[in-house]
Design a protein that fits this description.
- By secondary structure, the chain is an alpha/beta fold.
- It has 2 domains: about 190 residues, TIM Barrel (Alpha-Beta Barrel); about 100 residues, no CATH class.
- The chain is built from 13 helices and 8 strands.
- Strands 5-4-3-2-1-6-7-8 form an 8-stranded mixed β-sheet.
- Strand 7 and strand 8 form a beta hairpin.
Length: about 325
Amino acid sequence: MNTPLYSGVIINYVCTAACKHCIVASSPDCPKDHITEEMAENIAKLLSESGAYSVHIGGGEPFINFSSLCTVIRALSRNGIEVDYIETNGFWCSDEKFVRDRLMKLKELGVTTIMVSADPFHLEYVPLVRPLILCKMLRECGFDFFVWKERYLRQLSRLDINKSYTEEELKKELGDDYVAATAAEYGVGMNGRALAIADKIYPRRSYEEFVTSSPCSRLLVPHHCHIDLYGNGLPDGCPGLAMEMHDYLNEALSKEKYPVFTALVGGGTEALFNYATEKGFVPRAEGYPTRCSFCYAMRRYLASLENPTRDLSPISFYHSMDKEDI
C-alpha cells in the first residue's frame, strides 16, 4: 500500500468564496455535504494502515461546519494521525471572542497550526479585516500559523480592509494584469477554476499539439494526494478525477472501473482522446490553451454522458465548472 505522506482531507466542497484559482471549483453553490463521522473514521483508519502520520485539512471551507471539522480531528487523533494545519479564508472571524473560543477548542483537540488565505482572489469575497483578526487571535492564543500568501497582507492593507472588492475594482487598484500576476505568484497550475485564467492569458493551439502518448505519470504519485468526504482518492493537481481511496492507495486500478484514469496513466492524452472520440467527443476548432485544458474538455464531455464512469468524480466538480467561461 502506498503511503500518502504529504496529503490532505477535503471535508467539504462548499465555500463562502468562489476564487478564480480554486482547483476544486468550490463555491457557495456546491453541495452542502459535510464529512460524516463514519467516513471520517474510515479515512483515518486507512491513513493509519497506509503508514501516514499526518495530514492537513481543507475544503471548500472547513470552518463552515465547525462540528464536522472537530469530528474529523477526533477521528484522526484516535488513529494516531496528526493535523499538520487547517486551511481557512477567515470568513468567520468578525468577533474576537467567537474566534478565541473556536481556537481554544481546536487547541484542546491538539491542533497547533492554521493556514490563513489572503490574496486578491479571496478579497473578492472576504474583507481583509477577517484574516487580520484571525492572525491577531492566533498570536494571542499561542498558535503557529502562516498566511498564504503573506506578501499580499502588505499590498492589500492599503485598501479599505472592511470591504470586499469586485474584479473591476481590483483592476483599478492593482492593475489590469492582477489576475495573471496573482496566479503566477501562487504558482497556480492552471487547473480547476484556474483553467479560465489560462483561457484568457495563453494563446490557443490546435488540439493536435496536445495529443501525446506520454503518460501522466504524476497521477500515480499518491504520496501527495487528497481524500475527500465521499471517500475519493484525488491525485494531486488533477481535479475531477478520482478513485475509491482504497483502490487508489493500493493501485488497484482496473480499466473497466477507471477507464479515464488508466488511459491517462497508460497512454496520456492520446489514449484518452481515442477513448473520448469513440464516445462522440469532437475537439473545438479554435483549439485549447494548454494540455490540461484539452484534457479537461474531454473529461467534461465524458462526464456529461449518461452514467459517467467512477473516475469522473465528484460529479459536482463538473457541475460547478459548467458555470465558468471555459
